[in-house]
Amino acid sequence: MSKNLVRKIVATVFFILSVFLIWQLFIVNPEYQNNNKMTIKFGALFLSNLFLFVLTYTFQTEKIIEKEKKIVKQKEKNFDDIEEEKVSDTELKIKRIISDSENVSSDKNFYEELLKIFSKEFYIVQGLFYVKGKDKFKMSASYAIYGNKKINEFSEGQGIPGQVAKDMKIKIITDIPEDYINVVSGLGACSPQNLLFIPIVSANETIALIEVTAFDKFPNDLELYYSELNSALVKNMKHLL
After folding, report:
1. What is the 3-state secondary structure (H, E, C) of 17-73?
2. Distance (Å, rounded) from C-alpha 115 to C-alpha 97?
3. 157-179 confidence digits (pLDDT tens)
4. Which candidate, 16, 37, 110, 205, has a CA 20 to 30 Å from the CA of 157?
5. Half-sphere exposure of 77 (CA within 13 A, CB side)
6. φ, ψ for residue 48 (rounded to 5)?
7. Same domain, residue pair 148 and 226
8. Which contacts of 107-110 are long-range, i.e. CB under 8 A and separated by 24 or more positions?
9. Which pLDDT score, from 0 to 100, does residue 35 have?
10. 3-state helix, strand, coil in the chain (%, to 5)
11. Beta-bridge partners for 199
């Protein structure tokens, strides 16, 4: 039996006894009605027991209310946790990319730092950042490109990068040709099989293009968050264009 239940039983018993005694003394035995001392004593007894009764139940009610509030808060917390779990892994990656790109120090090459940020989130093995010049897109930064490999410029509509720039849509390519690009490491040379192009579009024109490769497949839902990513990158690049 809980302590709260014992308190309620004791308070109820005392209250009932005090009511019973007063009924016996003043209703069954009317002669006590004119006895002021007796009236004061039993009146005080009745009021004290009434106070104890009310206090006990009030305290218990407050505890119940407090307990219900805690239950509601816990349910809200659990709901928030569930909602957070519903956020896709891709969305979290995009949000981190946006946040990190906003914090790139002004004394660093923004394009290089952005490729590093992508490498951290999507485990890319190589990357290129093209910026549109007067007529063509030219490489402005690279990630893990070794040797004296020449990176060709391209016009809008020329080759895969140029077509992506023209279409102004994100593009994921899997099973790319083995001779498209090689990654050299201490383990030897190998070719990644997944390619991602991200056009950066401003005022209905592609102003830059990100090209990255990876051994693992890029998430299929990446396109869902492209608009948010593009808007953030355009904003962060304004001072460079």
Report:
1. HHHHHHHHHHHHCHHHHHCHHHHHHHHHHHHHHHHHHHHHHHHHHHHHHHHHHHHHH
2. 10
3. 999 899 999 999 999 988 776 66
4. 110
5. 6
6. -65, -40
7. yes
8. 109/141, 110/236, 110/237, 110/240
9. 53
10. 60, 20, 25
11. 209
Instruction: Look at residue 187 in the predicted model and tell me its pLDDT.
Output: 43
Which residue segment(s) compose the domain that 99 sits in?
89-240
CA–CA dist 212, 196 (Å, integer): 5
Last residue of a domain, one of 67, 86, 105: 86
Span between the terminal Cα atoms of the chain, in Å: 76
**Number of domains comprising the chain:** 2
Which residues, in sequence order, are bridge partners of residue 154? 137
Among candidates 196, 35, 221, which has minimal Cα distance to 118? 196
Q: At 169, list the tokens.
A: 């849509």
CATH at 113: 3.30.450.40
Regions of the chain short of the pLDDT cut 50: 82-83, 185-187
Q: Are residues 95 and 42 in the same domain?
A: no
Closest CA to 206 of 230, 229, 226, 223: 230
Check residue 157 and give its pLDDT. 94
State whether 164 and 188 are in the same domain. yes
Domain match, 155 and 37 both:
no
Same-domain check for residues 115 and 218: yes
Residue pair 209/162 in contact (Cβ under 8 Å)? The answer is no
Please tell me whether residues 81 and 111 are part of one structural domain.
no
Q: Are 131 and 111 in contact (CB under 8 A)?
A: yes
Whether 117 and 205 share a structural domain: yes
Q: By the 8 A CB rule, do 101 and 236 touch?
A: yes
Q: CB neighbours (10 Å) of residue 103?
A: 9
